[in-house]
Design goal:
Shape: globular
Order of helices and strands: HHHHEHEHEEEHEEHHEHEHEEEHEHE
GO molecular function, one term: glycylpeptide N-tetradecanoyltransferase activity
Distance between the termini: 56 Å
Low-confidence stretches: 1-9, 58-62
Helix content: 25-40%
Bound molecules: coenzyme A
Structural class: alpha+beta
Family: Belongs to the NMT family.
Pfam family, one: NMT
Radius of gyration: 24 Å
Membrane topology: Peripheral membrane protein
Number of strands: 14
Subcellular location: Cytoplasm, Cytosol; Membrane
Length: 457
């Protein structure tokens, strides 16, 4: 029998090297140091942990992922440089896939270091959904200094992760074998997307999350590779995703805008981005909203409105270079009001036709270690489409409704035509950007007002 290269018996030296390499791989995600520093940290009261985290954030000069394009040019993307994404700095004029779909897709899952296993999460099980909720709520931080943390509800996760045609195998988790703890997650949702003139079935990637104790150990590339493999198995080869950091290569870079609603609370919390030059009384006066909405015919969406909204959105989304092509069922799923998850309002004309719509979803957060406030509720603008009502009036009504429902702040991206009302309605621009990316697709970059897609995280 012939012996292949890999069958050759290794020399003693090679064996030693191999076993060291194997050990290194097995140890890859183990906490470093003689005593687990995380255990030590967790013994401290939360307020102490908080102080340490704030101090680390303040004095952190270590290597961190680039938040600006300028920083990105100096960063080496060990993983992303191996992926079919445009290179930073390339000016792209063509449209199309970067690599053509392979004839065969890898059958076996990507290997994890010893002690960890893949788990396809069955989100229809309340226990599993709760586990995912805990992972995200404890590890999906909102502010780098860990002062505000997302608090996703079970209902919210069902809404974002189970749209029509969702697939269980795209809810991809990583567990620790010894205690079955969920420590990593990434997901994909099927979506028809129009990018410039091309209409494509692809996935939207959501909720990439790695447990705090396993950060900076290169778990992310493995999660992304495995999800990509599972998506390719279903014959899809493109993805759209967003991130706050700069990766190769943003298709568009957008900014967050915030409109304070509960001024007193936000001032007490020193909410980032509030106008600094105003005392509370002035801020209350400056941000005061009407008591009631003013658009005649404005009302909450019902199931019967789905078809009307579908046509309104289809016409409106045509204007943009990147937009979802929503089916009727998807319109129902994404927009039909659900308590503390999604609100949609329509304007019905006298003849019964729907002329305008606006929707916003709910993002709750936990405020850590504040003497008075423990939670924050933000409304995030999803879609607004108007054919009759002035968008400024429609959005002002949305602010009034959000305030009456107890939201503290209203957030919007400067995508679509949102710039037409942001400043007029006293939204304040935030220093945070949100970058849009596409996997395995090459096309020219676009300005935020050409983006017609919002991906709730
Ligand atoms: C985002 C997160 C998973 C990254 O984990 P990490 O431990 O810092 O990174 P890892 O060591 O596992 O992997 C590093 C690689 O992942 C890439 N990466 C990090 N965050 C990424 C993101 N949000 N999207 C895509 N790639 C990302 C890095 O660029 C790096 O690749 P590179 O060498 O090509 O630069 C982790 O910080 C986390 O769970 N954060 C909280 C939730 C969150 O912010 N999710 C992202 C929403 S967009």
């Amino acid at each position: 029998m012939k012996m292949s290269l890999s069958d050759k018996k290794p020399t003693e030296d090679e064996s030693l090297k191999q076993s060291k390499k194997k050990q290194k791989k097995q140890d890859a995600w183990k906490p470093q140091g003689p005593m687990d520093p995380f255990t030590m940290l967790e013994c401290l009261p939360e307020s102490k942990q908080q102080e340490i985290q704030k101090a680390l954030h303040l004095f952190s000069f270590g290597p961190s992922l680039p938040k600006t394009l300028q920083q990105a040019t100096k960063h080496t993307y060990r993983f992303w440089d191996t992926q079919p994404v445009p290179r930073l700095g390339d000016s792209v004029v063509t449209h199309g896939p970067i690599v053509e779909g392979e004839a065969s897709v890898r059958q076996e899952p990507y290997s994890l270091p010893e002690g960890f296993s893949w788990d396809t999460l069955d989100l229809s099980s309340p226990t599993v959904l709760k586990e995912l909720c805990t992972l995200l709520n404890e590890n999906y931080m909102e502010e780098d200094d860990n002062t505000i943390r997302f608090e996703f509800s079970l209902e919210y996760l069902k809404w974002t992760l189970q749209p029509p045609n969702w697939l269980a195998q795209w809810h991809c988790g990583v567990r620790v074998d010894s205690n079955n703890k969920l420590v990593g997650f990434i997901s994909a949702l099927p979506a028809d997307v129009r990018i410039y003139e091309t209409e494509k079935r692809m996935v939207q990637v959501r909720f990439l999350c790695v447990h705090k104790k396993l950060r900076l150990k290169r778990m992310t590339p493995v999660l992304i590779r495995e999800l990509t493999r599972r998506v390719k198995q279903q014959g899809l080869h493109q993805a759209v995703y967003t991130a706050g950091l700069v990766l190769p290569t943003p298709l568009s870079s957008c900014r967050y805008w915030h409109r304070p609603l509960n001024i007193r609370k936000l001032t007490e919390m020193s909410y980032p981005g509030l106008r600094q030059n105003m005392n509370l009384q002035r801020a209350l006066k400056f941000n005061r909203l009407p008591e009631e909405t003013k658009t005649p015919g404005l009302r909450a969406m019902t199931k019967e409105d789905a078809a009307g909204i579908h046509s309104l959105l289809q016409a409106n989304l045509q204007k943009f270079h990147l937009s979802p092509m929503l089916s009727l069922q998807e319109v129902e799923h994404w927009l039909l009001p659900r308590e503390k998850v999604i609100d949609t309002y329509v304007v019905e004309g006298e003849d019964g036709t729907l002329t305008d719509m606006v929707s916003f979803y709910s993002v709750s957060s936990r405020v850590l270690n504040h003497p008075v406030h423990s939670g924050l509720r933000a409304a995030h603008l999803l879609y607004v489409a108007s054919t009759v009502t002035d968008p400024v009036d429609l959005m002002e009504d949305a602010l009034v409704l959000a305030q009456s429902k107890g939201y503290d702040v209203f957030c919007a991206l400067d995508v679509m035509d949102n710039k037409s009302f942001l400043e007029k309605l006293k939204f304040i621009v935030n220093d945070k950007s949100l970058h849009y990316y596409m996997y395995n697709w090459m096309c020219p970059n676009m300005s935020p007002d050409k983006v017609g897609l919002v991906l709730p995280n």
